[in-house]
Amino acid sequence: MSEDNNPAATDADGDECPGEDSFGFGDDLELNRFDGLPFSSRYYKLLEERKTLPVWEVRCEFEDALVNNQLVVVRGTARTGRSTQIPQWCAEFCLSAQYQHGMVVCTQTNRQQAVDLALRVADEMDVNIGHEVGYTIPLETCCSSDTLLRYCTDDMLLREMMSDPFLEHYGAVVIDQAHERTVSTDILLGLLKDILLQRPELRVVVLAVPPTTDKLLRHYGSIPLIRLEASCAAEVVHSNSDNKDYFYSALRLVLEIHRAKEDGDAVVFFASEEEVHCAQSILRREGTRLGADLGEMVPVVLCPGQGGLLPISTKQPGSKTSRRVFLSTQRGEDMWWSLESVNFVIDTGVQKKMVYNPRIRANSEVLQPISQCQADIRKQLSGPTGKCFCLYPEESQLPAENAPQILESNITPTVLFLKRMEIAGLGQCDFIDRPDPEGLMQALEELDYLAALDDDGNLSEIGIIMSEIPLDPQMAKALLASCEFDCVSEMLTIAAMLSAPSCFLKPPAIMTHEAVQCHRKFQHPDGDHFTLVNIYNAFKQSQREQHIGAEKWCQDYFLDHSALKTAEAIRSELTDTLNRIELPISDPTFGTKTNTLNIKRALLAGFFMQIARDVDGSGNYFILTHKHMAQVHPLSSYGAQSQKLGLPEWVVFHEYTLSENNYMRTVSEMSPQVFIQMAPLYFFYNLPPSESKDILQGLLDPEGSRKCKDEKQKAAVISSEADAGCAVMTQTYDRCVIQ
């Protein structure tokens, strides 16, 4: 890299190394080459802080590797500065080429972190957020035509590849948190291998921790590896034995830390969000019983994927007025890079995950140990002066790395996307870990049932349109079908409400009955899908009311305002998508008999694989596709009304989880006649034999069913006569023997 393009800056050791691109103006004024304005005093203050980060020790090595190689792997843990500094250096590299090959994009696995990093980097570069530095996360974009460095979630970059399959807008792509092994990150890593062959000028940087970096080196071959030396780890204290009661042990430890009056906030990693919310209520209750001299203890729930930014620390160093206790879940380790106030980490060492089973098309809830990779990251989070309490023995054998999510997820959406990429000219995705063949076959079969594939196994016209809609394939097909049945407005609402977080708030125990009564006002006799439309319509009505705000209305009815706002944004995005691909949007007619029937038809067009029948009239539902028994979830409108109104015999459901109670969620009544009308015949004939299938067969072919029934009865008579004959012969033989 020439000195003309990269003016030298002197680092702390006095060695010359490519530095911040700037040029003199007058005697003492430097201009920022990214926006042409003079640097502020804050820029120089932050620059001194940046130079103390471990990543700055390898800056020269990294920039040399970037100039001479298409692909660079950087190995380093949290708090090394990798996620903030390396994208900036890539931006300087692209600037040196006058952005001829494009700008810089850096992916994150967590939307919250993408925003946090963009804000921090804009501050460090002394530019405006939304201009030179921006971010793109689901349902929110903060960018402009001037944006040179953009942070985004990995799924958003994949979505962008629908219109830009070779990422020609970018001169450098940074894949951060590759060790998280999300489905989107793994697909990006697989597709980029082919894109690099097509675009020799493109640069790709992958940031990860071991042992993922070792696997990347084996996958990509001879590529440079930049090693970052981590800062000294905290003091680590392990439990002496396997702690089956890890939940209450963690809470007791939090209270002990608070009573010891040591400075610093705490982070506790639990197995699931249910445990997190339970811990919050317990700590709130216990906090009121602590002495005032200990200061306030504030439990804060922060789970990946729930949105909302990390709270910025407003405490002054040495302040003892309050201690925040952050409660989080698995795969949330990298969220804590910006919180310097954390001095204690409590790691329960377990995680509750949903693992997809392609044979039954359902998720199973599994409790398993975290990986060694996760454990090592958590040990770094409290800094060299903190403490990490591991509630498991030091000699515990943890899995080396995070399990790739592509091996544990429903890959039908992935296969649909990759089929679309084949049309765009990209070769096959070279996965680091190939998906399970059984899961792959199930995904292809499901897309075939949904009419997304043609006879040659390529995307059909319907499949191409489905790939344009940012929904799971089944919901995308249901939304497409609603165009035919004139119920698009209602299906948009249903799709948005099911894509957003649950809108139902869990009330305090003493207010449970009141919350149930409030939710019952929205219940629709035809099922949960229709109840969701009622809730959304009532929410929109509350926004138009002058005397009461939407937030207050949600609070009164125990509904989550942020979840409903998310649903509103998703619905708007889906509406824009349908308008862009010129699909008709019908006027709302919710509440009429015709509209109700049409909504059920549209739902079954996508979810015909998810039907069940109450076999005994008591709520024991038989799922036709895999012959499992399930119950309606207690929070369903049917769950609340079952004793009064009775349960429907046939239902279509949105989600089924194989767990302790085997619950179906979001359930609506449907008639078997409508199912026969909407389900593909070859799917019906592939259903395993059952009494429920025989009932449907009778509706499909009454004459054939009658003949089949007569033959079965005749066979039963012959069988009983034969059994009787055998009994007589046996009896006669016995008498002969006795005589």
TrEMBL record:
Keyword annotations: Acetylation, ATP-binding, Helicase, Hydrolase, Mitochondrion, Nucleotide-binding, Nucleus
Taxonomy, superkingdom: Eukaryota
Primary enzyme class: hydrolase
Reactions that this protein is recorded to catalyse: ATP + H2O = ADP + phosphate + H(+)
Chief location of this protein within or outside the cell: mitochondrion
SMART domains: HA2
Residue span(s) of domain Helicase-associated: 442-533
A molecular function (GO) term: RNA helicase activity
Residue numbers spanned by region Disordered: 1-20
Name of protein: Putative pre-mRNA-splicing factor ATP-dependent RNA helicase DHX32
